[in-house]
Amino acid sequence: MPDLSSIVGDHPRILVHQSKEWGEILLGFEAKNRFEIRDESGRRLGRAAEEAKGIGAWFLRNLLGHCRAASIHLYDGLGQRVGRGEKPFRFYFHRMDVYDGDEHVGAIQRRWSLLNRKFAVENAAGEEVMQIVSPLFRIWTFRLLFGDREVGAIRKKWGGALRELFTDADTFGVEFDPSLPLEVRKILLVATFLIDFTCFENNQGSGGFSMGFDD
Questions:
Q1: What angle do CA 18, 14, 125 make, to 5 degrees?
Q2: What's the fold here for domain 5-200?
Q3: Is it the case that residue 205 has pLDDT exceeding 90?
Q4: What pLDDT, in 10s, does the model give residues 95-133?
Q5: What is the rounded CA–CA span in Å between residue 214 and residue 18?
Q6: Where are the domains of the chain?
Q7: What is the DSSP secondary structure assignment for residue 201, as one 8-state letter?
C-alpha cells in the first residue's frame, strides 16, 4: 500500500507551497487549503488538501478559524493517497494525529509556552520524541530539537533557490538532519500543516496566510 515514504524519501529539504487551483486529481470531496509538495529542485513529490465536508464545515471554518477540526489528505505524484493528518477541535492545545497510509504513526501536540511557540512530536505510543520550537524574535522559523540538539527546521519565509518560483509568503521549507529516522520525518512533514493552520492562517478562515501572531 502506498505510504508517506513516496513523498518524504531521503530528501534533505521539502517545500510545501499553498496552491490556489489544481484540478487534475479527483479527490472525491470539496477541498480547501490545497498544497503542492516539491523537492529543493522544484520537482513535484505530491500534493495535499484539506477536506471541506460541506456547508456545515464552511460555517464552522469561518466561525472557529484555526480552532476548527480539520482533515488534511496527502497524495503522491501518481495521485494515490498515502497518508493524512487529523486535527480535532481545540481552542489552544492544538493537535494533529499522523497516519502513514491507514496506520497511526504519531502526532504533533502544541504545548503551553509563554514566550514562544512550542510543539511536541509524539511517536505512535504517545511518547514525546522531540520538540518544535519557534524563538521569540524569529516567528518564521521553527527549530526541530532532539534534546538540546537542533536536527532541522521548518521555515515559513523560505529563502532557497526556488524563492522566485514560489513567493516566500506562502511557502514552507522543511529541512531534515540526515540522522533523523524516516518515520520521524514523515511526522514532521505533516507538522508543517498544523503549524500553518494554527500559527499563520487568519482567524476568519479565508484559507490564506496572515502576518500576525496567533493566540
A1: 100
A2: Porin (2.40.160)
A3: no
A4: 999 999 999 999 999 999 888 899 999 999 999 999 999
A5: 19
A6: 5-200
A7: B
